[in-house]
Amino acid sequence: MREEEQKLQMVALARSLFERGYSVGGAGNLSVRLDRERILVTPTGASLGRLQAERLAVVDMRGNLLSGDKPSKESVFHLAIYRNNPACGAIVHLHSTYLTALSCLQGLDPDNAIRAFTPYYVMRVGKLAVVPYYPPGDGNIARELGERANRGKAFLLANHGVVVCGENLVDALENTEELEETAKLYFILQGHKIRYLTAAEIKDLEHRGK
Ligand SMILES: O=C(CO)COP(=O)(O)O
Ligand SMILES: [Zn+2]
């Protein structure tokens, strides 16, 4: 996709997330790998509902701003993921309601916060590792995500939100939507006896792909 088209797609998809209540205020940020040297990332403080294509930031792999407005303070962790996972082409970071609620619970399994109970969670996301709490923009989030980047595509930031990778921006968005829905179901099912998918069922789904 050409750079201008990519910018317009990011503006449209971000607005769609905002209009459907996945983000409020200035929370959340999106990025896309433009080529081996550069990523496109949303500006810091910008509402996902009101982005402007010409103001989106282009930064190099060391975080230097090449064009556009000042990049997201989380662009450091976006870059850490791209550097450590060549298969990741786009990243969505949100404070969406159910995943953020989940991120505030005590006693989550750090390797996988949601044990699988539906096929699409397995097919699109697989597992949800948990990064301990650090303040937004803290370099430790980048370090922790960099270490985990090639072992999964979705990560819960404790007491903060979620980070989801995809092959491209549409894929990352769809993975995020599936994950937010899974977290919603997880809360709806509290107090009910869940039949979790068995190890054999999960293995079968992993072979099928999405
Ligand atoms: O979600 C956010 C911080 O974690 C938003 O930060 P930015 O506005 O800098 O992208
Ligand atoms: Zn955030």
Automatic annotation (TrEMBL):
Keywords: Carbohydrate metabolism, Lyase, Metal-binding, Zinc. It is an enzyme of class 4 (lyase). Gene3D superfamilies: Class II aldolase/adducin N-terminal domain (3.40.225.10). It holds the Pfam family Aldolase_II. GO terms for molecular function: aldehyde-lyase activity; metal ion binding. GO terms for cellular component: cytosol. InterPro entries: Aldolase_class_II_sugar_metab, Aldolase_II/adducin_N, Aldolase_II/adducin_N_sf, OtnC. Its cofactor is Zn(2+). GO terms for biological process: pentose catabolic process. It catalyses: 3-dehydro-4-O-phospho-D-erythronate + H(+) = dihydroxyacetone phosphate + CO2; 3-dehydro-4-O-phospho-L-erythronate + H(+) = dihydroxyacetone phosphate + CO2. Its EC number is 4.1.1.104. Belongs to the aldolase class II family. AraD/FucA subfamily. Catalyzes the decarboxylation of 3-oxo-tetronate 4-phosphate to dihydroxyacetone phosphate (DHAP) and CO(2). This is 3-oxo-tetronate 4-phosphate decarboxylase. It comes from Mesocricetibacter intestinalis. The lineage of its organism: Bacteria, Pseudomonadati, Pseudomonadota, Gammaproteobacteria, Pasteurellales.
